[in-house]
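--- STAGE predict ---
source: upstream dedup step, 1 unique chain passed
mode: sequence only
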Amino acid sequence: MKRMHLLFGTSLICLLCLLPAGLYAAQEKVLASYFDIPVDSPEGTEVTGRIHLERNKDVHTMPVPEGYHFEILRQPEEALFRIETRYDLSKRMMGVLEVDKGKSTPSTPRNYRMIVALKDGDRQLEKFDVNVRIVKQTLWSLLYERYLPKTLRNPRMYGNKKCTDAEIGGMIEEVERNGGKFEGFRSYGTKPQDFDGRNTIEHDWTFIASKIGQMGYAYAASEVYGPEGRTDKRERLKNALYKAILAYTRSVPVEGDDVMIDGKPIGDCTGDGFSLLEADGIIGRQVPTHQWTMTDPLVVPALHLMPGLLEGMKKGDETCLQVHDALVRYFQIFMSVIKSRRAIDNPDERWGEIRDTLYSSGAWADANLGHRSRTMLALPLIWADYNRPMTYVQYWYEDFYGGKPFEGFSFQPGWSPHGVVSDVSYWMTKYNIPAHRYAQSGFQPDGTVSHHIGHGTDAAMVAYGFEWLTECSEGYACFRDTPFKIADKHYQFQLDRLLEVYPKLFYKQRMDFLVAGRSFLHDMRRFVLKTYPNAVRSLFRARSRDTRLERAEELEEVCRRLKENTYEHSGTHAYWVNEFLVHRRGENEPSFYASLKLKSERTVGAEDFDRKVRHSWHMGYGILPVKVDGDEYSDKVLKNFDWHALPGLTEEWRTDPFPLEGGSQASLPGRNKIAGVLADGVAGMGIYRHLPAEGYSSASAFKTYHFIGGKIISMASGIAREREGRHEDIATFIDQSDLRGTLTWYADGERHEIAPDESVNIAEPVEGVCWLHQGKKGYVLLPEGKLQLLIKTGKEINATDPREAGGKPNFIIAIGHGSVPGEEWSDACRYIQLPNVSAEEMPEKVEALLGSLELVQKPKSAHAAYSADEKTWQYAFFRPDEIEAGGVKVVSDDVAEIMLRDTGDGWVLSVGNPMPDGKKQTLSFTLSLALNPGVYAYPVPGMNPYEGETVAVASEGARSRVTVELPDIRDAARYGCQSDLYSAVPVVVRIPKAF
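--- STAGE serialize ---
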């Protein structure tokens, strides 16, 4: 038996040796997509763009066979070009085209086509077309011209510091006397696993990279060392940069066998020498997941050195060849990925289950693409070769996966590196990534955008999200009017969101801080007046001559009105994925802006990156600011905030600092499943079960919010102490802002006034209707039992961040529920905020409210609101139950939001599913009202024009039975595999009255 096996093996080897060469050819992939050369180029001029083999990525472990070479099979009879087969210093094979002896390229642009072969000895392995574009300006020169000036405007690309000429002189001397090394860094001669210091070795690396970047800036812009400086000093700095780059890049491990652990390479792939250090605990997680911190600082020095570097390489200068090879090697870490994130089958990893291409957009599908684009756009210029692939890191290539789980699969599905210019152009189209599920980065169908989703879906509309939407314009501009220009649909994607989403969040030249993400404390006026219009201008400037955009004039008009402070909008909009609602007026009526931000087990509030003082801990817990002037919650006002007392919050009123541990999302999602917003364009509502998951917050509650005309109504029932906390009183905070003018309050038949310069701490029992007024807003309390009115102003307010506090003092209005709600003080409350009223108007307004509003609560079960003025009914169910308001009873079979509005000739019926799980198929309820029976189709709101499902109305005598078909998992294909996100979409139908 052993002899038979041996004979079979020998026969098989012989058979393989006799296989035709064509079978080997299929194993070689040639990268030869773009070439150009200037007109009138003399003999010996190299074509920009070399011929590469995909197998070059593996030369470290599998050298290119010695017999491989390129040969021109056919070219036009003038035979302008010759080809040489060369190897770079890393033994990667390339085909180099040059103008042949005695020849020159023509004086007018043209395409010059050839047929080239890859051969192994005399065997032809591949035959392919080569088209050399003879041009007035090469693509490399154009891209260099377009991108180079931008690099000096971003400090990240030169080490975040502009050094003095004296400092540069000292750095030059330092690297000259140390063979290119900066002093004080042990990383030059120490293996990463042996590095013993206060920080891990990557901190040395980023610091050295920054110093090289600072030298690079001097080479680019210094009066002494720059292009207009002294020739001798500039030359000296150039040579110092060469030495520093070589010493530094050689000290950073790139290949897997650059780091040996227990005698074995740390990994098998290019980049593993860097990225796998994290898995072994040798370096931290931050730098290898934010690789641009290693590569960005070298962009300015590398790009400004490139013309001289390329000239030296043409002449065979050994140092120039070494520096370029070192840069190519070093920049491989840019696309190296830590071990855990390479998993393609883990739905809990950063980019989801990558092999499920219906629900994952693949690796790097997040807002950090804006950060990555800085280095990306530099790579074609550093490579100076259109066909060298963007990366040699093997797991980005299609062949790494061997056709599994399906043929053509890759780490970024649909892409495998094949030439740096086309590669980078491809990545410029990956900004418009849709989210498919909760806790997934991407653009949401409701218009919001999410980035950091480690705990839940976030609303990152300024930091991260806005960059993700708009920073692509820089790449679009680089590639405009070139063969690699970006398709119109990508421009349109950005324009649609700039026009349809963002302006609705702008009021009186300020962005809503509730959905600004980590930027919530920044200057939101600057964002509206500078960042936003700059992005619009950048988008328009980035267009190619034939780019066609719809509604561009409308966007320009919005920018003009924002600048003139004449932009107004009236409407009520539900951003259902992020549980956020905007209710505003101003087009044809007095202007105001109210917004509501909830969170649940699906979503989180704003991130907080402050390592010394937390602020945004409670953001998302039913926060409800109302603006009239527009600057009530400006960055200056927020600096004086007691962040334990956010408007709309029901929580223990603590004074101790928020916890610092736990990262930027330490406040976590809620434990509550119930949270939802509903709007029909005119009116809206929200339902929220306050049930924090983190251990700092102490309260729980059943809360609803009702937005009807100029009335912003809040109700809470079942307020309780959920955790021991610090035994401070639990309160519902009505408002906190700066005290502008007299604060007036009326209770138990007496009117009181608080002057702007007063500091008060009032705790007043209230059993009857009570109202307050401040600025241009009124507040009406309709007690449920015995309440405590709480007012603090001036120095009585415990500003959370004393580092920032100062200036104009704030005021806080709240309702006290006691340490144990329901014992001494009520565990429920109802209050109304009225924009655009004066103190003198308040008594009349209160009387009108009492005559037109009906607010009903069934504690812990259902709330209802009815406004006779607007003929609007709203019902919120925390569980199946029945409740009546305004003469209409609703019996709901499930958790639900239901809204009914009488338009005279018909009804607008709106329904929301505030407990979405992607599986619920229907919501059903009965109205004590005879609606016109029928089946009514509804379109879904948001950014995608999908037809929705149906609402069936069946007559039951004087009642109507309503069944709402919801988007669910069965409808995944219909909703672009976003059915989970559409399961909470507002359902709105118009039902005509039967006459």
